[in-house]
Amino acid sequence: SVSRFILICNYSSKIIEPIQSRCAVFRFKALEDKDVKKFIERIVKGENLKIDKGAIDAIINIAEGDLRKVANLLQAAAALKAKIDEDVIYEVASKAKPQEVYEMLNLALKGKFEEARNILRNMLVKEGLAGSDIISEIHKQIYKLPISDQAKIELVERCGETDFRISEGANELIQLEALLAQFLLYGKK
Prior knowledge:
Layout: H1 17-21, H2 33-47, E1 50-51, H3 53-63, H4 67-80, E2 83-84, H5 86-93, H6 98-109, H7 113-126, H8 131-142, H9 149-167, H10 172-188
């Protein structure tokens, strides 16, 4: 008899070649936001959950078209609070809030480094976020900032360098403060 199994992963390149050669790889594209919203609404109705619009938008933002993430986020959030809001979604996902990161970057661009640094410290210390998660959100927010395309390109490169240093074991706070300082410099240009 032939044994068959299903291996589910997000990145097939992370599976060793001998296993890949014996498998059929099926790639699925991420679902669109409207489809994710329908799935959320179906779960909310079926489980009789109370959720606000901000939480739905947060789930769509974090899930990035992956329904497994949607289900996991809703399950974890429902276990924490009777009424699911945006704050509880970011809390269970351990992700940085986009508005908070955008505000931090804007403050740095305006030369208000101390205020930007306080937001960063709050995310790292009080909210307990990982430096790599904060960098991921910084990367997303760069494209929304009122700076030149050249500055955006250079800041994306700085994000990559900072992420690499942190993955190699460098101090998260020091590395992220150095990255914030780069935003300060581009704000003065």
